[in-house]
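Quick entry between incubations.
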Amino acid sequence: MRLAGRRISGPKGPGLGRRRESLSAHDDHVEGLLEQYVEQSIDRRQFFKRAGALGLSMSAASALLAPVASAARRVPAAAALTRGGTFIEGYDRDFTKMDSAQSGWADPGYYALYEFTMIRDVKGKIVPAMAESWTISPDGKTWTLHIRKGLKFQSGAPCTAKDVAENFNVFRGPKTGQNAIFWPPMTVSEGPNNTVVLKLKKPDAALPETLATEYSMIENLAMRKTLGAKYGATGADGTGPFKLTEFTPGKQVRVTRWDAYPGSNIPFLQNHGKAYVNEVRWVPITQASGRANEMESGTVHAVKNPAGQDVGRLKGDSNLVVQEWPAIANSFMSPNWGLKTLGFNDIRVRQALSHAIDRVGIAKSVFFGHAVPTYGPIAPNFKWYNHAVEQYNQFDPGKAAKLLDQAGWVKGSSGIREKNGQKLSFTHLDWAAQAQGKLIMEAIVPMMKNIGVEMTVKSLESAAFFPAYPKSQSFGYEWLWSAPVDVLVIFNVIPSPAYNGGLKDLKAAFTQWQTAKNDKQLQAAAQKVQLIWAAKLPKIPIVTRNDIWVHSKKVHGWNPTQTMLYPLYNDVWVEH
Amino acid sequence: MRNFVLRRLTFSIFLVFLSSIVVFFGMRAAPGDVTTQLVNPANSYSAYLVPNLKHILGLDKPLLSQYFSFMGNTLRGHPGISLINGDPISRIIGSAGLETLKLGGAAFILTLVTAIPLGILAARRHNSLLDQGTTFVAVLGMGIPNFFLAVLLISLFSIHLRWLPAAGSSGIRFLILPAFVLSAEAIAITLRLVRSSVLEQLSRDYVRSLRARGLPEWRVVGVHAFRNALPPVFALIGTLARNLLAYTMIVEVIFRWPGLGYQLVQSILERYYTLAQVLALMLTVLVIFFNLLADLGQQFADPRVREGGRG
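Done. Structure below.
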């Protein structure tokens, strides 16, 4: 990222992240240890052993290790690189159309077909991709993106700054872009020398957060127009290293290597030329229990998110590599602030509900330990995580009961609290498409009962859930978005500002985020948002599940990171 | 016989009509619709997109009009297009139908080539170890739910032995486990029926006569006794086909086999009305057809059950 008046270039190598800043007396030793791990001079077991000798707890050592795990894997493997073959990946959903403008969900195929203008590295820092550099005017309102010359779409058509500008205008148009809501007001035009000029109404240092999401990946709009509704299914045209060969929902999506690919300049990639494998194939494994089976049987080379109960077994398989870290996601519950009769507009009631939740217990029981409790709206591995949120929302049923007493809710003869003849009883709507959501909420039901609150859970499928939730007493699900603060901006007004209390200080913090001029201001705003959220609870954060990535040891260069939804496929190769 | 056929045909057509009403209005009775799948609820313009989409899909018309439009298009062979990839539904059904046909066909053939010889052998060697063994296997086959059998077989052949893939549909190797799981119960039932039917024939006088005339044993059992034992097996085949079709939904989901059952489950969950309705109706029609086939088969094969005793 660039401060005003300075030109931005790529990263300076695999740094070890913000977490180092929190180290004190042992900084040098621990840093040295991490570097040894990144360079693969020591293995994971040795790392933990030596970290223990330095006085670090197991959990502290794990937290330090997580951000550098990907960097360690990028060190060239001992096996000789093999070109060709097919890489088969199990996908935990069924497929949606490969259209970055209109698809409701981004599939991993995007990362093979399309390219980002800017991309997040392993630490979440924005680094160049199709835009080889960018400059920002001193007032922070004009961004000039220098697009790489010589880029082409897979169809052979050139991809210039004009195409990028046109794509941006499609993405940010509410009638044309599914996620236009994330784009700040601006004008976009083609500038001289293959540049794209974005003129914003207000400075917005968070703009790259939107540019580095899957819904801002560049596609050939001419091809999109030609194919109409079939774009992204019968054909797609991006600048990525693979071409779409087959799109069969329910069965598979196949892409084949594009031999005329001009290469990538993404700094953290090893391979800056054409891809190594001939073909990548994704198969939908929508049943969580089937993912471990397909991995262990060698039916697929890699899979995301096996069932929690299978992870231990997979970790014990010497043919497999298992990595996990908190996803860029959060499961929450959202009592309707507008329900004054239930006291949901009383911060003491909201805090009581939150204190009643045993988040650690839920992480252990529902996710078999493959999740982290969240006391603020974002998981602790976020680059600008605010540790101060942990002073709030800790499991404390005694405190919860006291807060309800203070708010005037006293236990009636049935054991349920009442106030003015109204029982503290509500129905929570759960989105059935996310299997774990119902389990989380069912676990919360007895926790609520423990403090005299009656909660029932109603689970609805997508088609029924979305029309119903704006009028619900409470709802919840898991959001998943690679720019977490941006998503909180949206969730603060979903389904309406009034549903979330219309908190003025939170709105001000979001404005601070949306008008920040640099990373420092962004960080300050992000931390303020988290703190206010944790204290006032427009929505109650519960847990963040881990993303669990499993791959065969025969697979190399498949490097998922904590900052992106999926890994890139440029570096992937498979031992034959 | 002609009256019987006409009556059964008329009844079947009436059943199809009734099914089409149940399927269509049943789907619409479920809350929500497909637009919530297609439009991001966070989209600031969803208030414009949803009605627009409903208009394009004809979901803003009265239900009765939607029903007639659906039936008309389906009978003309053009029920609509997929909302996921823009393919005509007829093409999706063709491709998924082929996959189901492969799986169902393999299971059906496996049933016949396994159950008939084993059933004959078991009858021929009545009360032998082989007979008791096949009886035991048949009881297991009828008793183990197919989803549990699938888990056992995947665990053994895919995970531990790594001989067969755990799921998918990329070749003949992928077909073995799902076809076996799908056919397990059918094999057990057919085996038991063939055994008892052949056994019954072997106790008949004509068998003793044939043996007395010096006919080779394989001809006595494999040709004469078996031929006379066939009518109940014919009757069973219609039931088997119907059961295979019903179980295919479970097996296809477990083994990620992209057939009609898998597509139906997905389209119901996503409220892709037209696809779900066409698939549900098609599967219903097939079940009705197999029932009709079983009834007719029995009529043709066994004069004793022929209505009025006339052809």
